[in-house]
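Duplicate of #3305? Posting structure anyway:
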């Protein structure tokens, strides 16, 4: 029998916090908690959404920062294609920016998650929820592969559907409140904008990959000889 996550009483949590929360902000957070609960409860009235919730754990894996970083490093090493170095290096930088930005903002805001996660098989989300790292990462990745390093337009609809599913799944799993998700989306859009400004060109990307891979440098030098 599956256990639903235990929902935390937000008012009690805020009162026990050592920080002094301004009344207007406390009211906004309270409304956000109430709206999130009502939204999730309404969504779960539909059989299709209850069925969709069964796949939310897979979606959580599909947008986890560690999974993306490890997969990207493995992809770069296995492929060894200099034509892909521009995408690989810029995506690596974008993922690092996202991970550090989310971590810093969470450390500053320290907003607790809406539910206690007692699932031993979950990819250990931290205790803070603002902003949603999955929402920011999926937003950045969607814009990255649509506009910065565009995939063929045929892939845009499934990419957009994946992004929407990630954002909704964070609410259905009680990982985040609605404001957390919207803040993550805004952050992801901003990260994509920043990447557009600092984009690393193909030559610099190839040099960077060669610099961190001695074997590949030696191989390339041998070919030139």
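Output from current build:
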């Amino acid at each position: 029998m599956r256990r639903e996550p235990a929902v935390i009483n937000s008012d009690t949590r805020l009162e026990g916090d050592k920080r002094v929360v301004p009344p207007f902000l406390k009211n906004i957070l309270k409304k956000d908690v109430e709206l999130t609960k009502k939204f999730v409860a309404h969504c779960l009235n539909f059989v299709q959404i209850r069925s969709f919730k069964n796949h939310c754990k897979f979606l959580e894996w599909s947008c986890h920062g560690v999974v993306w970083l490890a997969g990207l490093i493995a992809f770069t090493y296995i492929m060894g294609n200099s034509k892909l170095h521009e995408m690989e290096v810029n995506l690596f930088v974008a993922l690092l920016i996202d991970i550090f930005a989310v971590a810093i903002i969470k450390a500053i805001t320290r907003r607790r998650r809406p539910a206690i996660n007692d699932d031993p098989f979950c990819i250990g989300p931290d205790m803070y929820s603002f902003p949603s790292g999955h929402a920011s990462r999926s937003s950045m990745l969607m814009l990255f592969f649509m506009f910065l390093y565009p995939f063929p337009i045929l892939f845009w609809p499934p990419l957009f559907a994946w992004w929407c599913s990630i954002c909704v799944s964070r609410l259905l799993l009680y990982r985040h409140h609605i404001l957390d998700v919207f803040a993550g989306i805004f952050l992801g859009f901003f990260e994509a904008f920043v990447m557009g400004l600092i984009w690393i060109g193909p030559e610099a990307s190839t040099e960077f990959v060669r610099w961190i891979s001695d074997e590949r440098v030696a191989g390339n030098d041998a070919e030139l000889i």
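Confirmed duplicate; merging threads. The two ends are 65 Å apart (CA to CA). Residues 113 and 175 are 6 Å apart (CA to CA).
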